[in-house]
Amino acid sequence: MPDTQQDGYMTADGRRIGPVVMEMRNITLRFGGVVAIKDISFDIREGEIRAIIGPNGAGKSSMLNVISGFYKPQEGEVIYKGARRPPMKPYQVARDGIARTFQNIALFEGMTVLDNVMTGRLNHMRSGLLGQAFWWAGAQKEEVANREVAEKVIDFLEIQNIRKTPVSRLPYGLKKRVELARALAAEPKILLLDEPMAGMNVEEKEDMCRFILDVNDEFGTTIALIEHDMGVVMDLSDRVVVMDYGKKIGDGTPDEVRANQEVIDAYLGVAHD
Ligand SMILES: Nc1ncnc2c1ncn2[C@@H]1O[C@H](COP(=O)(O)OP(=O)(O)O)[C@@H](O)[C@H]1O
Ligand SMILES: [Mg+2]
């Protein structure tokens, strides 16, 4: 792997990995007396699928929240697109090209699939209520364009047949896919997935794996994901960060972390669901 951040490289399976797009530098995050993240540094390259693994309570979701800008670490800095990222509101993060899904599904259960996916477009809508009242032609044009993106994502994730179905009626695996659709509708540069396959059966997992790879391949989306299924992690990811008790205990290719004794002792050697 090249060590200059400007260079990219080709993976064995012919995907292009670009330069570093985000860098975490000495991040420490505390909740009162609990230290969720202890002095962790790592980077994410453009086009990469970067996994974060580790036991429950290791600090993985907290780290994803730091990457997304939702949590502000007490120490350290996040370098995004070559500059130190200032504290941001969630909508600013979304405008800056970062979208996410949650460990616990966060959809509007009473709304249809299409309407849920449309909420992923909110950051792309310039005209608010006033705009719609006074300049409805422009707002209408925007609405049509946004709907087009939403429909494209729905086609891409093969959920056309349920686009008018209220989310509450869907099985768990499909809800997870709708959540992915909403995140994709924002057309993110970086997509953050918190346990996208947790609770899924084998078939649902295979589908989700395929869609994650397709998104990465088709749109060049950089992906950071938390996942417990080691088979999935090893198959999907280019590089893996391993966390344990808030500390980083491993970082490298799947083969490298698999051979790391500290990682084996803390995580890989024990059974996980
Ligand atoms: N919002 C919060 N308030 C207080 N403590 C939290 C909060 N979020 C996470 N923690 C604590 O931080 C630690 C790491 O949690 P988390 O990031 O959720 O781990 P993981 O996702 O690896 O299971 C845990 O001890 C957890 O209880
Ligand atoms: Mg978590």
Automatic annotation (TrEMBL):
This is ABC transporter ATP-binding protein. The keyword Phosphoprotein does not apply. GO terms for cellular component: plasma membrane. Keywords: ATP-binding, Nucleotide-binding, Transport. It comes from the Bacteria. InterPro entries: AAA+_ATPase (IPR003593), ABC_AA/LPS_Transport (IPR051120), ABC_transporter-like_ATP-bd (IPR003439), BCA_ABC_TP_C (IPR032823), P-loop_NTPase (IPR027417). GO terms for molecular function: ATP binding; ATP hydrolysis activity. Residues 22-270 form the ABC transporter domain. SMART domains: AAA (SM00382).
